[in-house]
Amino acid sequence: TGKSFLAKPLTMFAIVAFAALAALASAQNPCCTPESWTGIRGGLGAQVFSLQPQLDGIGEVTYYDYANNRLRLDLDIESLDGSRNRKAIEIFLWSEGVQYVIEDGVCKAYNLTGNMAAFCVPANAEKRGEATLGGSVVTEAWSYTENNVGIELIVAKSGCIPVVQAAADVVTITERAEANLWLNISAGVDPAVFTPPSGCQTTGQTVSFDLMSHIHKDLHKRILAKRAH
Question: How many CB atoms lie within 10 A of CB 83?
Fold first, then answer.
């Protein structure tokens, strides 16, 4: 379930992530991941609405193929109290200008604008230091702010593979925070995963998408509210 899969590893790696910030910083340009990879992102988001705390979890399989301008996300999200959940597949084909959303057995097609953005540590990020995980994996800690959200991102020094991300609202810091952990990342993507089912309904609606912004946005508002039909 989302509870058992996400809670313990995220807590452990969040501790490692913040410990890495104590290392000595050194000047270095931000990096980008390889152009093609597959992996799992687990996330926890905590926030307060009307003085009521809410905790949501996400398991997301990412098929990232920047070389061919396409992306697939297999989403499995639930509130940890079991009151809300969502499962969906989202396929982004920038070369064709279309996004497919498969949810509740229905496939819908949207007009996709813009260009696929690379998965990179932002250019305005500041390197905070380095640390070693498991005695062999050297990681880099980067810090930056986006839309009043303070973000700490840990990546592997070799290959810029994402490891951990932690974020908190820097304006009302006690009201929203989240953490993400990446697992089982492997090189390459099976091209078959980008083939949508037949009979998808054309909506005529236009959308845009950026993977890094998608990861940073608030879990509750970003994912648990389904698209309007």
Answer: 9
As given in the structure block, the two tokens for residue 92 are 């982004």
| pTM (2 d.p.) | 0.78
Query: CA separation (Å) from 38 to 21, 24, 60, 74, 129?
Result: 27, 31, 11, 11, 27
**CB of 71 closer than 8 Å to CB of 211:** yes
Do 151 and 49 touch, CB atoms closer than 8 A?
no
User: Do 224 and 78 contact (CB within 8 A), yes or no?
Assistant: no
Cα torsion at 132, 137, 143, 149 (round to 10°)? -110
DSSP 139: E
Q: How far apart are CA 130 and CA 181, in angstroms?
A: 18
pLDDT in tens, 107-130: 999 999 999 999 999 999 999 999
